[in-house]
Amino acid sequence: MFSVALMDELIQATCFEVGRADLSLTRVTGAELGPPGPGEALFEVERFGFSANNVTYALLGEALRYWDLFPAGPGWGRIPVWGYLRVVASAVPGVAAGERAFGLCPMATHVLLRPQRAGRATFTEGSPQRAGLSSVYNVYARVRARPPGPPGDDDALVVLRPVFWLSFTLDDYLSQAGHADRAVIVTSASSKAAIGLAHLLAARGVPVIGLTSADHEPFVTGLAVYHQVIPYQCAGDAPAAGAVLVDIAGNAALRDQIERAHPGRLAETIVAGRAHPEADIDGGEPPVTFFVPDVIRTRARELGWAVLEQRFQAALAGFASAAGSWLNVISHPGLDAVDDLYQSMLGHAAGSPAQAHLIRVR
Q1: Of 351, 358, 5, nearest to 154 (Cα)?
Q2: What is residue 302's three-state secondary structure?
Q3: What whole-number distance in Å separates Cα of residue 167 and Cα of residue 267?
Q4: What does the alpha-carbon distance between residue 194 and residue 89 come to, in Å, rounded to a whole number?
Q5: Is the whole model's pTM more than 0.90, yes or no?
Q6: Are the C-beta atoms of residues 239 and 217 closer than 8 Å to each other?
């Protein structure tokens, strides 16, 4: 156990926050942090990935309790991101200063966690406000050593790992639900989650039809993981007979366009995301029917977490290796870059689909 007495000075921490009622409002707050109390560990944030997926966390912050992960002051929210953390000081047996972990954190320089059930590979975050949230959000992978090579040479894994869970669980579902050989139509085909799914399906010999914007059509075609690429304005031309539609864009109008063009010919429609804030808003909750944390929890019960994690890691390594031919990870020093990135993604100006953004805090 690390003695908190060795932390002999206060730490100045900063955190990026957004307005919960108006997501375009932002601020950076500061606070002085002292030694962690019993059962607590203070982590510094080393680096984290930032993408449109994190904006979705903000859009669904109320409905899916994302604001509960890292509480902020009244009216403000801290958007969760996935990144690497390092223990600064700990009052938790089995969690020592200098150790590293991968999991959810706020866009901040530091975060105070309550690690529980610390095992060799993982620990669980046990803060009271997280009670009832999926274990997917509360489990942190312990990183025993830095990867070989220069610091940051696994940056692709930081930005791909969170979105690849959707790719991996969708592929697993399709292979288990009687759709193993059916053609799959994927919306938002330029998104990294869709590319990951197409990568896995293509490896199994499944034809994949990608729907994308006209601007992104050349990029998506060049990936060579889609059997056919169709721009959105021609979505009704997608060969739907017996196919499964996986709507990663989360756009009801687009689904209706395809279904009207081919009434009764789709084998199944899976709504797996909400990439566009205006999509599917009818006064109720967004119709996300494929909720990754629930799927992971079910499969972990069936297979055991160790087996599921092993399969995921192997699949992720293969995808990250393949993505090396097109993925451009842009590294940004410090939290100063966050606001511009966030505002651009909130306004749908996400940049090239080949780009991914990594904030290097330390």
Answers
A1: 358
A2: helix
A3: 19
A4: 39
A5: no
A6: no
